[in-house]
Specification:
Helix content is about 15%, strand content about 50%. The protein is built from one helix and eight strands, in the order αββββββββ. The strands form two sheets. The chain has a four-stranded antiparallel β-sheet with strand order 1-2-3-6, with no helix packed on it. It has a four-stranded antiparallel β-sheet with strand order 5-4-7-8, with no helix packed on it.
Length: about 160
């Protein structure tokens, strides 16, 4: 019985040593968020990319929003137009073309009622890559326009 436990202990220790380089070389999720004032500080653009790992699966959630800043004595005039566009995408060795989910919200003379939202969840497999992109385009009241984009790609999906 003692030899069996010793052999089992050696096997577990060996497996742990072989797995250690996989953990050490694992890339962490490239979560990112940014908040930026646009149109002379009249509006706030909020861009978020949230990558997650759940052991055997990974995910990416992308959101983009536009709102008034609330600075100053009076609310700013609404934007002439806006569009918020998000993409959550995946590819792997067996499927090298990007597969994606996307969402767009747009309008004139107002603000989005909710952020643009897209997500992608998948099993981890060989050559896994996840990508998130969030973009807001806005027509400022004075006639100019601004565009803000946040993009991250997670090569290897943590493995």
């Amino acid at each position: 019985m003692k030899n069996h436990r010793t052999a089992l202990s050696v096997a577990l220790a060996t497996a742990a040593l072989f797995a250690l380089p996989l953990v050490v070389n694992a890339t962490p999720p490239p979560d990112a968020n940014t908040g930026v004032l646009v149109c002379g500080g009249a509006y706030y653009v909020d861009l978020n990319l949230d990558f997650g790992e759940g052991g055997s699966d990974v995910s990416v959630v992308a959101t983009a929003d536009l709102s008034p800043t609330g600075f100053g004595p009076a609310p700013p005039d609404p934007p002439r137009w806006y569009s918020a566009y998000v993409v959550a995408a995946h590819r792997d060795t067996a499927h090298p073309a990007w597969d994606s989910h996307s969402d767009t919200t747009s309008g004139n003379g107002g603000f989005p009622s909710q952020p643009a939202y897209a997500s992608y969840r998948m099993w981890i497999d060989a050559g896994c890559e996840l990508k998130g992109t969030a973009t807001v385009n806005v027509g400022c009241p004075g006639g100019s326009s601004e565009s803000k984009t946040l993009t991250r790609t997670w090569v290897g999906c943590g493995f």
